[in-house]
Amino acid sequence: MDKKMKKLKQEYMNVQIPAELETLVTQSLRPAQQRKRGITWFLGSAAAAIALFVSGVNISPAFAQSMSEMPAVSALVKLVTFTEYTAKGDGYHADVKVPAITNMPDNKLQDMLNEKYIAEGQKLYKEFMAEIDQWKGKPLMGVDSGYEVVTDTDQLLSIQRWVVQTKASAYETLKYDTIDKKNQVLLTLPSLFKDESYVSVISENIKEQMHGQMKTDPNKVYWVKGAGLDETNILMFDSISKTQSFYINVDGKLVIAFNESDVAPGSAGPVQFVIPTEVINSLLVSQQYIK
User: Are 263 and 235 in contact (CB under 8 A)?
Assistant: First the structure.
């Protein structure tokens, strides 16, 4: 570890923490995250860490300059892991990474998103810890979470947050935020369209894609009408919600996302559908984001 990295890490390690917390290990300057199923536990003050990092970047030119001179730091100034909750015990483990967005001109939007990420991480941890006693003597129990940037262009930043919960078997959920970096706006699905007609149009296209994929690949199964499944015991996909999870990919295409088991067997994991722009082009408010 070079001197600059050691110096910045030491600044984080010097953050005052409550006495009841067992360990604080801050990892705000680590390289871009890879999904992993770790079992080390770090208990930290998320609020203190983010306050230190954001104030350091925004207030101190020297601090910001030292950051920019480090390898791969340019990407981390946009999104960093500033704390990681991890625990390991008899039959259970947890590894919860909490991201933070930094260096956005609009501090209000940045703070809103970071507070949401903090709340998500804390809630996930507390719920996990509350279940430990009930799970003693049973098969492996675990929770792992992290994030990755799925789109980073001159205008758009799309962030994926993932959670894998294990209770004998694993279940994965995904959440996305897509930000217009130029205009400092958090995009929502309704904000992209003129009216609510996008719901039915996108839903019908997804059904077409499901049938097309199943026809091409006999091993694929989607819970959709006409797939030859027993519809009495399965909740068939009919429509996306008005606020369905989505992001815009690097090619400027709208991607609709579903969690594991939402529209297909759990073995398929989370599934996504890229919506052809020609299908929704006339419904868009503008062609600024979706190409």
Answer: no
pLDDT band for 242, please (50, 70, 90 cuts): very high
Rounded to whole angstroms, the maximal C-alpha distance in the chain is 64
Nearest CA to 54 among 97, 108, 91? 108
Bridge partners of 149, per DSSP, are 159
Other C-beta atoms closer than 10 Å to the C-beta of 143 total 22
Mean pLDDT of the chain: 78
CB 269 within 8 Å of CB 221: no
Question: What is residue 21's three-state secondary structure?
Answer: coil
| CA-based nearest residue to 95, from 39, 141, 43, 49 | 39
For residue range 123-171, what is the model confidence (pLDDT) as tens digits? 999 999 988 877 666 667 899 999 999 999 989 999 999 999 998 788 9
The vertex-259 CA angle with 253 and 261, nearest 5°, equals 130
How would DSSP label each residue in 88-118? EETTEEEEEEEEEE---S-HHHHHHHHHHHH
For residue 266, the 8-state DSSP code is G
Among candidates 33, 29, 32, 70, which has minimal Cα distance to 52?
A: 29
Burial of 29 (0-12, 13-18, 19+ CB in 10 A): buried
Record the tokens describing residue 103, joined without a space. Answer: 């260096």
